[in-house]
Amino acid sequence: xxxxxxxxxxxxxxxxxxxxxxxxxxxxxxxxxxxxxxxxxxxxxxxxxxxxxxxxxxxxxxxxxxxxxxxxxxxxxxxxxxxxxxxxxxxxxxxxxxxxxxxxxxxx
Length: 108
Prior knowledge:
Layout: E1 3-5, E2 11-13, E3 32-38, E4 41-47, E5 53-58, E6 63-71, E7 74-82, E8 92-98, E9 101-103
Antiparallel strand pairs: 1-2, 3-4, 5-6, 6-7, 7-8, 8-9
């Protein structure tokens, strides 16, 4: 379940029939959710249909970046291999994925 914090401190559930739509002025439903867990505990970030969400995980010399977007009403994930924190190699496009699998051509 994805929750988006409204301007008055309340939370809106992704199971709502209004998922991905502006519910009231100041409220936007989150479409994407990213979580990480590390030394300092767990952190969560949300992305809306309009703004999407980008998540990056880096080692010293290798990393991955995932960009979540909505295209034609469908959730799309674009994946890149990166050179990590040291940027040892140029970013390489891996693929674009949706619910039914990989989109065969580069879209991003």
